[in-house]
Model the fold of this input.
Amino acid sequence: MLFRGLLLAVLLLGGMCGVARGQVVQLPTTHSFSVGTTVSVPDGGAVQLGGVSRSYESSSDFGIPGLGGLPVAGRLFRNRGISRGVERSGAWATATIHDLRAMDEATLQLAARQRAGRAVDPTIERRAAFLTQHIGRSAGSAASGSRR
Done:
């Protein structure tokens, strides 16, 4: 009798304490692959490094047991489903070359032209000041084409 009372007390306390119940979480199915290679790609070009292709096919039969097996009328009581598909994934590399020296020179030339016309864009002025301070180029040297 003491055991039954103790068991009942534990069950009651377990329900009152908010014991967590198991919860099932479905995680997504993932597939991955990797490619290790060296390629030469021109500016603006792209190359496919590799890929994976998977195909699948499945079929399902549904019907009323007994009636679906009748010779002629059975088609009215059954259903067949067929599923086919292809999954493809691949890895691509695209190359874009940025000539930072030419971009710096263009920024300095634009700043020099804006100063001459007295209409100064603050963004271009900040970029030109940064280039002059940190790289050692000035708007005058960019306009004349000389480099330090």
